[in-house]
């Protein structure tokens, strides 16, 4: 059985200018892998309405699930909610449920739910809210797109609350073998083992560490017993 | 004058499974920013021929320059060169100039240029080689696509040798202001300053550090004097 597929859309000039190093992609990738959902593609686009809308539409059509990060705060450069609404021709405005969440949060802090903060209650019609226990402003799910915050700790919390609601396939298991020989030396033996196990995927990643050149071979698949067999075959092939 | 635009294509299952954290994107982003080329989009795709070919074709058509990383080694999962050739309908085979480079390198190391290693001499017709002073196997440039290694130290060396050959625009300058107030509190003052300087881009990034919630405001633009003015205006606006 094929696992469900997913794509990620990272939104933010600060990633593309190199000012900030994205960490949400790696977190989501690991969590999806554990959950049996295959992350097939990730895109980073700038805070540009057309770029966000087009990417969301294209990824939504191409994959079972889409996860976005970034651009849902209170400032003028936070345009993700509008863009996702536009991608699906959904009306968007301040929604009462989202406004109530923000109102409660800011009242408790003795702060005002001003016009800027109220922007964070703009949710497309028909979307389900994603809880934000850290700073209240909710994410949302519209069709197959999960719109989440860019701040890593909030993104991670939202991922944790969303993933259990999605049906995953068999988790992708992986094992790795470290070989202290270059890729070019082991390539043909590796190919032979890979061809003997067509259900598994074999990746080879060169490394150089303290003057030692070598290769990490990573084997991935859903069947643990088959994976064990392949690792044994691999270890033998690499000794010759 | 508009700066040239660029996109990056990261190729590799190991990024999408979460096993490896990509660092090439952040490096390229910083270098392009310094060089006055605007990185507008980045995509990560898996070791899948159709995904690589389609992404390369689409990014090549959409941006002035494309930079790829990953998938040019000697093993069966290294299919980038074939895919880029396919994207432009260019024939591909072992090229004499690339073979000579590898031959010299492996002879000097007392190693054999075997069939697997010879794969790394497969270069599309019409491509220019990119020097690899570390492990010899060259990258290449086909039309506006720069095909480079995934191993960060090699990728970075290739970027360093390629960038001086590209005409950059004015480097994007940036200054930032740290404000110990939440985004929602400063949003309207920030918008007012941003509207007064339409040539500059204003980004706001919330942080929480040792219990302090605040916002980093980053202003970017090509005109240093204007940037200075805007920062002064911003600092004043944030004091009220």
Question: Care to give the gist of this entry?
Answer:
Two copies of one chain form a homodimer. With 240 residues, chain A is of the alpha/beta class.
Overview of this protein structure:
- The structure is a homodimer of 240-residue chains.
- By secondary structure, the first copy, chain A, is α/β, with parallel strands linked by helices.
- Chain A has 2 domains: 5-165, Molybdenum Cofactor Biosythetic Enzyme, Chain A (3-Layer(aba) Sandwich), CATH 3.40.980.10; 173-239, Ribosomal protein S10 (Alpha-Beta Plaits, 2-Layer Sandwich), CATH 3.30.70.600.
- In chain A, 40% of the residues lie in helices and 26% in strands.
- Chain A has helices spanning 13-16, 24-35, 49-62, 80-87, 96-108, 115-118, 152-162, 183-196, 224-239, and strands at 5-11, 38-45, 65-69, 92-94, 122-124, 128-130, 139-142, 145-148, 173-179, 201-209, 212-221.
- In chain A, the strands form 3 sheets. The first copy, chain A, has a 6-stranded mixed beta sheet with strand order 2-1-3-8-7-6, sandwiched between helices. In chain A, strands 9-11-10 form a 3-stranded antiparallel beta sheet, with helices on one face.
- In chain A, helix 3 packs across helix 4 (80-87).
- The longest helix of chain A is centred in the C-terminal third of the chain and has 16 residues, at 224-239.
- The model of chain A has no long low-confidence stretch (mean pLDDT 94).
């Amino acid at each position: 059985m094929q696992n469900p597929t997913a794509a990620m859309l990272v939104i933010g000039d600060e990633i593309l200018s190199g000012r900030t190093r994205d960490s949400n992609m790696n977190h989501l990738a690991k969590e999806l892998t554990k959950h049996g959902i295959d992350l097939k593609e990730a895109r980073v686009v700038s805070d540009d309405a057309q770029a966000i809308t087009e990417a969301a539409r294209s990824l939504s059509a191409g994959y079972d699930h889409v996860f976005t990060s970034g651009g849902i705060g209170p400032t003028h450069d936070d345009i993700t909610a509008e863009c996702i609404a536009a991608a699906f021709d959904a009306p968007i405005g301040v929604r009462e449920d989202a406004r109530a969440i923000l109102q409660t949060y800011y009242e408790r802090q003795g702060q005002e739910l001003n016009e800027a903060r109220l922007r964070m209650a703009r949710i497309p019609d028909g979307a389900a809210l994603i809880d934000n226990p850290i700073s209240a402003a909710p994410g949302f799910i519209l069709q197959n797109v999960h719109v989440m915050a860019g701040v890593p700790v909030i993104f991670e919390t939202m991922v944790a609350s969303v993933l259990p609601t999605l049906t995953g396939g068999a988790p992708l298991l992986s094992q790795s073998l470290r070989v202290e020989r270059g890729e070019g030396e082991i390539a043909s033996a590796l190919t032979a083992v890979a061809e003997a196990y067509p259900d598994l995927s074999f990746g080879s990643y060169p490394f150089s560490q303290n003057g030692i050149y070598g290769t990490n071979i990573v084997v991935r698949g859903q069947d643990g017993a088959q994976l064990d067999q392949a690792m044994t075959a691999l270890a033998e092939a690499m000794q010759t």
